[in-house]
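Small ribosomal subunit protein uS15c: structure tokens wanted.
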Amino acid sequence: MDKHKSIDAQLIGGNKDTGFTASQIYYLTHQILKLTSHLESHSEDYSSQRGLRKLLDRRRRLLIYLSDKNTALYTKVVKNLGIRGLKGR
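Answer:
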């Protein structure tokens, strides 16, 4: 959890502006990690699987938007969160 707090401070500078694209990606990533750990022990929870797919798709769309608008911030976000970048971007 400490890793996520430090990443949050790096990405948004301690500003809790939840409308900022990078902070939305951070919070979605945090929710995705929580759901992933839940699904490791409850593999047949299909409602959670559907919710996870929706969160992943929302994060992907935000990453596409960020890569189009601010490439430097996109690379910083992907690197700091340790997530894979988009194909072909």
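The radius of gyration is 14 Å. The domain at 20-81 is CATH 1.10.287.10 (Helix Hairpins).

Cheers.
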